[in-house]
Amino acid sequence: MLLQNMEDIIGNALLDYQAGKHTEDITTYSSLDEVDSILLPYLFRSFDEMPRLEQKALELAKGNVLDIGCGAGSHTLYLQNKGLNVSALDSSKGAMKVCEKRGVKKMIHSKILDFEYFKFDTLLLLMNGIGLAGKIIDLGYFLKHLKTLLNPNGQILLDSSDIIYMFDKDEDGGFWVPDTGSYYGEVTFTMEYKGQKSSPFEWLYIDFNTLKKVCKSNGFNCELVSKGKHYDYLAKLSLSV
Q: Where is each Methyltransferase domain found (predicted)?
């Protein structure tokens, strides 16, 4: 599977940091010709170190919670310490081991699209977790699967970014987006850590208006909870009556 190497890279990096062997961070390469880093200390952050959008999402979490793509488990641990019944889900074995070492009580080692056994009151998709959908054409299928995991009055809390700002502005102040036939928020990434490189994988960034349209056509209400400082936002999805 294309994601396997990526998952191993993330898991290995998290395990190194947990063991006090942090010598480098994860380097990412994207189809937008951007080279960036995932800073490992940031994945182990406390509530006070989280962006306000993440803090707001955790404050809104209720009932039985599923933290999708939990990584090192920082969001799970905060909710667990608040007394919520929260489960941490990730497809990375390394992430699961780190969560266990950090004290996470309930863990699910699975890809989200393969998981179908329980229902929850809150699904968390933080750090642009909606990116797991990969492409805009697959977002409807992704949302329909999430619907099967929600209790009737459940909610999905997700943050994402409108990456239109990464494109050049034209003379009228608008943004010039190349006509590639694809949604501009579809990005192909490759990760590298300690000489190991992943296979390319797709990741989706979605602007709020587009998200709202896709949600409506798939049986969800979509509410803008709050905006961040730089084209990012927190949205709340609930089942349409």
A: 65-154
Q: What residue numbers bound the domain in which 48 lies?
A: 3-239
Q: Residue 124: beta bridge partners? A: 67, 157
Q: Are 196 and 9 in contact (CB under 8 A)?
A: yes
Q: Which two tokens stand for residue 42?
A: 């940031």
Whether 157 and 125 have beta carbons less than 8 Å apart is answered as yes
Whichever domain contains 51, its CATH number is 3.40.50.150
Tokens of 212: 């709202």
pLDDT in tens, 74-104: 999 999 999 999 999 999 999 999 999 999 9
Distance of CA 230 to the CA centre of its chain: 17
Secondary structure letter of residue 135 according to DSSP: S
Distances in whole angstroms, Cα of residue 104 to Cα of each of 51, 77, 82, 85: 22, 6, 13, 11
Domain count within the chain: 1
HSE-CB for 145 with a 13 A CA cutoff? 15
Q: Are 10 and 26 in contact (CB under 8 A)?
A: yes
In sequence order, the 6+-apart residues with CB closer than 8 A to the CB of 39 are 25
